[in-house]
Amino acid sequence: MPLDAGKTIIPFRGNVLTAPVDTPSFDISSFVIGDDKTYPDWLTTGHTSRENSVALEKDGGDAEQKGSWEDEGLDAVYEPTAWSATVNALQMDKPTFELAFPGGEWDEATQSYDVGNIGTVERAVMVVFAPGDKRAGFYMPRGQITLGDAPELDVEEFFELQLRIQALSSQTTRKRFRWFATRPYKALAAA
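Structure (tokenized):
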């Protein structure tokens, strides 16, 4: 593999987006934070934490070697692997509440959200790294979202609602996620 500095990226800026399950991903090359023309059919989750940025997690996948009497390292079996992500949302608004506390009820008059039992909601999820003139990221066609850890009040940091996202298999493609290689930013063609 040749050395290619153009394929490296420091994800110091980016955005998390959601859409209905199995919504196709978009061309991230032209993505601009806050410009919804660059991510059609998707909704931004708004501001997310820089201090506690998006975290990908892998659980399982451990190997167990199997052997025979003659050869103790004949083969290996692996336990199933669960992939997930954690996103710390900063905006206290209806779209964030609907992801963190699905099934609740928004009251427009009081700008408040009533929460009952906390469940899950399924959405397609895209995380786009957008630092300067490069783009990269990943896509989950079917992410199951729920509230993560209970929020804490910190007088020196933004209030955060932690969203836990399980990467489930798409009912269409049977895939759980897709990585987008680093590429240069390319402005959208004028309409």
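DSSP finds one helix and twelve strands in the chain. The first strand starts at residue 14 and ends at 19.
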